[in-house]
Amino acid sequence: MHVSYTDEQNLIRTMVRDFAINEVEPTAAQRDEEERFDRNLFDKMGKLGLTGIPWPTAYGGLASDFLTYAMVIEELSRVCGSTGVMLSVHTSLVSWAIYKYGTEEQKQKFLRPLAEGKKLGAYSLTESGSGSDAGAMRTTAIKDGDRYVLNGSKLFVTNGGEAEVYIIFAMTDLQQRQKGCSAFIVEKGAAGFIFGSKEKKLGIRSSPTMELRFENCRVPVENLLGPEGDGFRIAMKSLDGGRIGIAAQALGIAQGALDASIAYAKERNQLGKPIGGQQTIAFRIADMATHIEAARLLTYQAAWRESKGLTYGKQAAIAKLFASDTAVQVCIEAVQIFGDDGYTKDFPVERFLRDAKVTQIYEGTNEIQRIVISRMLLAD
Ligand code: CAA
């Protein structure tokens, strides 16, 4: 991998940085406080072309690549982790799956409006009895003529309630476990598709996390994504790319905490000089930056491999594991550097710390990442 960026990548990064500072950051603390999702931000991202970065123009995309996409998630998360995950799930879980496994008709009908920012996407795998053990899901999809009838419920759905396009994994044959799982595209408003309660969370509070219920929800057979029985593989492949998005989100949160710490260390005077002049603070900042650089290289490597059509599942899991641990550790250090100030809502580092924690949990806990990585290393 060459560690250099194209003119287009530099241009998009600068554009997104401006957008993040001018449009996302000013309301980030208030949206967090009010647990308020702001659809306007998504609409504005659509107008900038950020909602379909890697997809061809034929599907309404920007025809850029996954590395550029990871940079965009990083820059958004540098000011607001909720905004970062909104675009990450929309792009690397939902749009990616339709781009890779959808029919031409599905791409025109669903991918195009997703890429153009006219519709928001959500992805739903987890259930109350199947989180890490995704293959144990109980939601069923029984074929009945030209429809599948879905029954069951899903949990922890990012963008839930706000999204228009949902990828739902359900069992078309419960006896076969993973091989009996299929993927469906379900639209908001479908009869029998019900939004349940919204989670109250520690962090990413302006990103809605919703329970979904299916009560005899009839989905047209043309909304089956990929072949029947291929759902588990589609879920796992989508998560490989999704984990790059979460690594980029964690990286951005960590960078945001470092930015704030450096500014504070230069301004805050103690014992007659800025605290950045004290070796204990200066060395902390050096260590934070070192871990962030390593996380950035791992994340970009995984994204670059996806862009080049190379295998990237292991690299994505490694990047997610390292970047999320880095984010939590860096944010803890940032709060410490800020002292009492860091523990208040007057400064952004307490929000960064709360937002960072979930990156170790969703899209596969870091324990699951270790399973994924070690299985690949130990396979015959
Ligand atoms: N790509 C392609 N195929 C894959 C794959 C991958 N990355 N991973 C597994 N498969 C295939 C296997 O090859 C196997 O196929 P065969 O039987 O044909 O060989 C099949 O899938 C079953 O694989 P495993 O035996 O490895 O399955 P398992 O039951 O042991 O589970 C697991 C593996 C890694 C633990 C998996 O269950 C997992 O990743 N769990 C975590 C789930 C997760 O990340 N959930 C997050 C949901 S999204 C979210 O967080 C909410 C949100 O909105 C952001």
How much of the sequence lies in strands comes to 15-25%
- Architecture per CATH nomenclature, i.e. the level-2 architecture of the largest domain: Up-down Bundle
Q: What shape does the CA trace take?
A: globular
Q: Gap between N and C termini, in Å?
A: 27 Å
pLDDT averaged residue by residue: 97
Q: How many domains is the backbone divided into? A: 3
Radius of gyration: 21 Å
Strands in their spatial order, largest beta sheet: 1-4-5-8
Q: Would you identify the CATH H-level superfamily of the largest domain?
A: Butyryl-CoA Dehydrogenase, subunit A, domain 3
State the oligomer.
single chain
Q: CATH topology of the largest domain, what is it called?
A: Butyryl-CoA Dehydrogenase, subunit A, domain 3
* Helix content range: 40-55%
Q: How is the biggest beta sheet arranged?
A: 4 strands, mixed
Bound compounds, each kind once, are: acetoacetyl-coenzyme A
Order of helices and strands: HHHHHEEEEEEEEHEEHHHH
CATH C-level name of the largest domain: Mainly Alpha
> How many helix segments?
10
Structural class: alpha+beta
Counted beta strands: 10
Cofactor: FAD
Domain Acyl-CoA dehydrogenase/oxidase N-terminal: 6-118
Domain Acyl-CoA oxidase/dehydrogenase middle: 122-217
Organism: Paenibacillus germinis
